[in-house]
Specification:
eight-stranded parallel beta sheet, alpha/beta, TIM Barrel
Length: about 220
């Protein structure tokens, strides 16, 4: 199936409330352009140097660029300059540095807090209690807009465990929104191996690489 046909097939199973983010790490500028002209507007990148080349080359297109990799403090300046969204915020120090860098640019950046739904030493993220504390800190950072939460599940879970994990974050998301002055609108859950389960649990943004672009060579 062609890239365009695959995107069209995905869009047919998604309702209008779900955003489809193409994970474009390792993909060529040509492939990203093809995805754009097939209807994709949200693109996710993990590596800053690789992303910078693509973002600058495609700045004439109205792409929304999401950073979905690990964040180092020294990279925050470039993250503020290049990306519309940062999905992997999980510490007060990173939030403060992103806020400072965005203030210098006179902009307000969309962010998500990465939540570690299950214990996993290989994944970054906040616990639920740490997330609540971080939300309170972000309220005082005027150059960040907390749009929502994201998670990456550990590998090897069966479908029931995946659903339970996603559903627990959806419940937490809804409960948090009851007390926020500016409610969150984005719940980024689900990747190529588990996005159908995530959608059932209430995700409204899925991050797909292999399903869109095929296996990486």
């Amino acid at each position: 199936m062609s890239l365009e046909s695959q995107i069209q097939a995905l869009q047919q199973i998604l309702n209008d409330s779900v955003s489809l983010l193409a994970v474009s790490k390792t993909q060529s500028i040509e492939n990203i352009q093809q995805a754009y002209f097939a209807g994709i507007r949200h693109f996710g990148e993990n590596y800053l140097n690789e992303a910078q080349e693509k973002i600058l080359a495609l700045k004439h297109l109205d792409c929304q660029w999401h950073y979905i990799g690990l964040i180092q403090t020294k990279k925050c300046k470039k993250l503020a300059e290049l990306f519309d969204w940062v999905q992997t915020v999980c510490s007060e120090s990173i939030a403060q540095e992103l806020n400072r860098c965005n203030e210098l640019l006179a902009k307000r950046q969309n962010i998500l807090i990465q939540v570690k739904v299950l214990p996993d030493e290989n994944k970054a993220g906040c616990s639920f209690s740490q997330c609540l504390e971080l939300m309170e800190k972000i309220k005082d950072l005027p150059h960040l807009r907390l749009r929502g939460l994201m998670c990456i599940l550990p590998l090897g879970l069966d479908e029931q465990a995946q659903y339970h994990s996603f559903a627990s974050l959806k419940k937490f998301f809804d409960e948090c929104n009851e007390s926020l002055d500016e409610p969150m609108d984005t719940l980024s859950m689900g990747m190529s191996d588990d996005y159908l389960v995530a959608l059932r649990a209430g995700s409204n943004m899925i991050r797909l690489g292999r399903v869109i672009f095929g296996e990486r060579l």
